[in-house]
Amino acid sequence: MYITCLDMEGVLVPEIWIAFAEASGIPELRRTTRDEPDYDKLMHWRLGILKEHGLGLKEIQATIAKIDPLPGAKEFLDELRSFTQVIILSDTFEQFAMPLMKKLDYPTIFCNTLEVAPSGEITGFQMRCEQSKLTTVKALQSIGYDTIAAGDSYNDLGMIQASKAGFLFKSTEKIKADHPELPAYEEFSDLLNAIKEAMD
């Protein structure tokens, strides 16, 4: 019995923080988990920049409303869900993810939540659990599932390496070079075929 676990940003939808960096004109916010392996450090740094510029949840959600899934992502997900269970494991937040999940016909997503003041200022965040992607994959395995995982960033490596089959998808040259043992794909059709083969 298989469950496929996918990262969200960079795999199914564009990177939210990069889109917001462009919309807000704050280039520092382009930094993502592709650049910074320590997610806690990255998020505290981001919240500091938002506070400095007086930006909150409303402004980020306005950018998210204009983001569409990557070309082919919905079709890929529809076909994948026709033959295997799929869970999206993301370090994003419910307040960011829900509008994007609507555009993908509401696949199951496990993510985190933001702490937001009445003023709209993002004051903090609550992670679902430590090393959420790896922890979730191990939990699924503990109840009898074989996992297949795909992602693009440092914070995806744990779940990819712990799964029966794991793939890099639309990753960086550095991550691909550091992990030559992991098959790497750029096209949804190739990833779909790799997942099918892993299940045979």
Descriptive tags:
seven-stranded mixed β-sheet, Rossmann fold, 9 helices, alpha/beta
Verbal overview:
It is a single chain. The chain contains nine helices and seven strands, in the order E-H-H-H-H-E-H-E-E-H-E-H-E-H-E-H. The chain has 200 residues and is α/β, with parallel strands linked by helices. The chain has a domain at 2-13 and 70-111 and 129-199: 3-Layer(aba) Sandwich (Rossmann fold). Strands 4-3-2-1-5-6-7 form a seven-stranded mixed sheet, sandwiched between helices. It is globular, with a radius of gyration of 17 Å.
- 3D shape: globular
Second CATH tier, the architecture of one domain? 3-Layer(aba) Sandwich
Helix-and-strand structural type = alpha/beta
Mean of the pLDDT scores? 95
Count of separate DSSP helical elements: 9
CATH superfamily of one domain: HAD superfamily/HAD-like
Strands in their spatial order, largest beta sheet: 4-3-2-1-5-6-7
Q: Please give the largest β-sheet.
A: 7 strands, mixed
Which fold does the CATH topology of one domain refer to?
Rossmann fold
SSE order, one letter for each helix or strand: EHHHHEHEEHEHEHEH
Q: What would you report as the Rg, rounded to the nearest angstrom?
A: 17 Å
Write down how many β-strands occur, each being a DSSP E stretch of 2 or more residues: 7
Share of β-strand residues: 15-25%
Distance between the termini: 11 Å
> CATH top level of one domain?
Alpha Beta
The low-confidence parts are none
Helix % is: 40-55%
